[in-house]
Design brief:
With 94 residues, the chain is α+β, with helices and mostly antiparallel strands. The protein contains two helices and five strands. The relative contact order is 0.21.
Length: 94
């Protein structure tokens, strides 16, 4: 789990669901589909959305663009606001 962004309004975490933990012994469980996603927490509403699959791929493209163009905080939060409209799950523990 990697914190990518944290402000008064939003937090974004990159979650590597199948990542091997340091020191963990890997058992041969057959082929696994690598899964990862992004959790976006709207601190103002107390809700979160988890992006995986094609949503995560689209968000990864956005992150790559941000790395190349260094947007303002306002531009980042405007984009996150769009994703936050998908948020339905209340934040229980963060």
């Amino acid at each position: 789990m990697h914190m990518l962004y944290d402000s008064d309004a939003f937090a974004v975490v990159h979650i590597l669901a199948n990542a091997q933990i340091e020191g963990e012994v890997e058992l041969d469980q057959g082929p696994q589909i690598p899964r990862h996603g992004f959790e976006i927490v709207d601190k103002r509403s107390g809700k979160e959305v988890y992006l995986d699959g094609s949503w995560a791929e689209m968000f990864q493209i956005q992150i790559t663009a941000w790395q190349q163009n260094t947007p303002s905080q306002e531009e980042v939060e405007d984009t996150l606001e769009g994703y936050a409209t998908l948020a339905q799950m209340p934040v229980v523990m963060h």
